[in-house]
Amino acid sequence: MIQTAKRIANVEEYYFSRKLAEVRGLDTPELRVINLGIGSPDQAPSSATIDALIASAKNPAHHGYQNYKGIPAFRQAIADFYRRVYNTTLNTETEILPLMGSKEGIMHIAMAFVNEGDEVLIPNPGYPTYSSVANLVGATLRPYALKESLNWGIDIAELEKSDLSKVKIMWVNFPHMPTGRVASREELKALVDLARKHQFLIVNDNPYSLILNDNPMSILSIEGADEVALELNSLSKSHNMAGWRLGWVAGKKEFIDAVLKVKSNMDSGMFLGLQHAATEALKNGEVWFKELNQVYRQRKQVALQLLDVLGCTYADQSGLFVWAKAPDHIADVEKWIDEILYGTKVFITPGFIFGEAGRRYIRVSLCCTETMLQEALERVKSFLKKQAAAPAATTAKV
């Protein structure tokens, strides 16, 4: 029998890859599933973005292989974006590498820097791909807790007390998914100082900074970060372009060159039409984002009503999701979420998929219309009312 590689022994199929197939199986014309689980924006990119794609795609000369480092105009648009949004200067020739979505960058960075046995600091709760990639490259996982008592902040003093001599990469993600935590400049500075002291690479995954966040920030704006930091960013969430697979990694030349060694052996440059479209998308102005965030604010109000009905508790947060704690009387949150799914055809993400620290939590996505959120709220209200009435009905029969 042909055996699979040992490197995938500790890696499971991505939760949403498996679960969404189950969710789709519940869909019927009579009652459609309302998916409040996944963070895939349902609105369109700006019209200028779409127009740029169409115009470029009509040019017969634009369909060949492209440079691995992207066209100069795309890199310049990224640099302009960083200057305008984060007050951060990047060299367009040496400090920016476009990616086919920032998710691929997680693997490229790990392959470029992590040797088998190196330790990788993983946020708990956090994006599951950090752990999966660490396993795939043979790293030793070192989860670090984001503490509810610190409003999901990192206890840097506690981390400092541990042995960090074998750490190669620390993954951070601010604004954080799933908790919506926004780090202060002081917190980012403390993390950069920690990385400098112990000489490990700190990578900030930063796709949510423009969603319901009044203070977008890049770790590369922090003093000393150029020595130890990389930043991943993306058009997926902030520009409604998740399916377009457009992102980048930014940082100093030596780090970017190392990532390019991996990337150039794994894929080719992205379609030129996509690069032209991305260049336009990065020019979206303040009014466009203000309108986008107003939509999310209105949706969030309904999402919070849904969480109130479920008896959950939550704090103020940014990003595309609402992170909430399940009621104390719920013994098994995953089972509870499945009961809601099969009883209402409303899918909510259970927090355990983000790590042990998320086991008592759920996550609601804002990536569906206000009308659909309202429908989900009514379905859940009806479901809970029937549940409450069930014991009384049984007693009456007896």
TrEMBL record:
CDD domains: AAT_like (cd00609). The keyword Transferase applies. This is Aminotransferase. GO terms for molecular function: pyridoxal phosphate binding; transaminase activity. PANTHER family: AMINO ACID AMINOTRANSFERASE (PTHR42832), L-GLUTAMINE--4-(METHYLSULFANYL)-2-OXOBUTANOATE AMINOTRANSFERASE (PTHR42832:SF3). SUPFAM superfamilies: PLP-dependent transferases (SSF53383). It comes from the Bacteria. Residues 33-380 form the Aminotransferase class I/classII large domain. Belongs to the class-I pyridoxal-phosphate-dependent aminotransferase family. Keywords: Aminotransferase, Transferase. Its cofactor is pyridoxal 5'-phosphate. Its EC number is 2.6.1.-. Gene3D superfamilies: Aspartate Aminotransferase, domain 1, Type I PLP-dependent aspartate aminotransferase-like (Major domain).
